[in-house]
Request: fold
Amino acid sequence: QGGVTDGADRERITLRQGDGLTAVAPGEVEVAVFSGLAEKKIWSLLCDGAAIVGSMKRLVFGPLTSLGYLRPRLRELGWRTVDENLVCTGGHYTLSFAVEPGTEPDFEPMTWHFGPLLFERQEPLLAAYLQDIRRRHHKAFEHVTRQRPGFRELIEHWPAAMARCSTWPGAPR
Reply:
């Protein structure tokens, strides 16, 4: 629930080391955080720990890059997006999002890849984040047909996403 924990909360936290979810048993953990990893690696860890993941109440992700790989797979398994956050530190954008078991609303495909809740909130950093995606992946944008389907769809929806953000108050032009 945000913020720094006080002393009482710290006593309830146990840190364990292991590979992915191997350090816990099904039903033992309610929330898992996967951060600083590629989407494909996160997906691999989730698949390897499927029995454990199935018993969790919430998963939180902060992938190195969020490019349309993880989110559709989570949706297919019955996880819905409940929160999203976008920050920029030192010129690097980080998108994090949380999911819980449930049916995902029918978000527009254009918003789905970039953060549907960010669009709902009219996140001020979203336009700059979209521009950063285009800058970092310019070659992929030039060769759309060679991309895997999820990333190809992300690229195809990028112009509409940028157009939507540009209409918000205070958006960069």
